[in-house]
C-alpha cells in the first residue's frame, strides 16, 4: 500500500522556497500540466514557466511561480528545482 503523503521541496536557484508534507502537487511541464499523488511512478520532467500548486493534507494550498527547471518524483519525494521560484 502506498504512503498517504508526499515529501515536497520547491527550490529556487539560491534558496529553498518551501518544503513539507503534501497530498498532491500540480505543476506545468513542457509536455503539459501534471498532477502527482502518493505512489506516483518515478519520473523526471522539464518545467515550463507557471504555477506549482501544492495541496496540504488539510486542503490548504501553497502556490509558487517557477520557471526554468525540472521536477523529479521518486519514492513519494517530489523535488522541484527552478532557476526562478517564489511563493505567490
TL;DR of this structure?
This protein has 88 residues and is mainly beta. It is 0% helix and 70% strand. The chain has a seven-stranded mixed beta sheet, with no helix packed on it.
First-residue to last-residue Cα separation: 34 Å
Percent of residues in β-strands:
over 45%
How much helical structure, as a percent, in the residues?
Answer: under 10%
> Largest sheet, order of strands side by side?
2-1-7-6-5-3-4
As a whole number of angstroms, the C-alpha radius of gyration is 12 Å
The chain-level mean pLDDT equals: 95
How many helices? The count is 0
Largest sheet: 7 strands, mixed
**Total strand segments:** 7
Q: What is the general shape?
A: globular
Structure report:
- The protein has 88 residues and is mainly beta.
- It is 0% helix and 70% strand.
- A hairpin with a 5-residue loop joins β5 and β6 (61-74).
- The protein is globular, with a radius of gyration of 12 Å.
Key words describing this protein structure:
88 residues, single chain, mainly beta, 70% strand
Record the SSE blueprint.
Elements: E1 6-11, E2 16-22, E3 24-29, E4 32-36, E5 43-55, E6 61-74, E7 77-87
Parallel strand pairs: 1-7
Antiparallel strand pairs: 1-2, 3-4, 3-5, 5-6, 6-7
Amino acid at each position: 500500500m502506498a504512503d498517504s503523503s508526499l515529501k515536497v521541496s520547491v527550490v529556487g536557484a539560491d534558496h529553498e522556497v518551501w518544503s513539507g508534507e503534501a497530498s498532491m502537487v500540480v505543476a506545468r511541464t513542457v509536455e503539459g500540466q501534471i498532477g502527482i499523488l502518493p505512489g506516483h511512478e518515478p519520473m523526471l520532467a522539464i518545467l515550463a514557466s507557471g504555477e506549482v500548486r501544492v495541496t496540504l493534507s488539510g486542503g490548504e494550498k501553497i502556490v509558487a511561480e517557477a520557471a526554468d527547471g525540472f521536477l523529479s518524483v521518486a519514492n513519494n519525494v517530489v523535488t522541484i528545482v527552478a532557476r526562478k521560484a517564489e511563493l505567490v
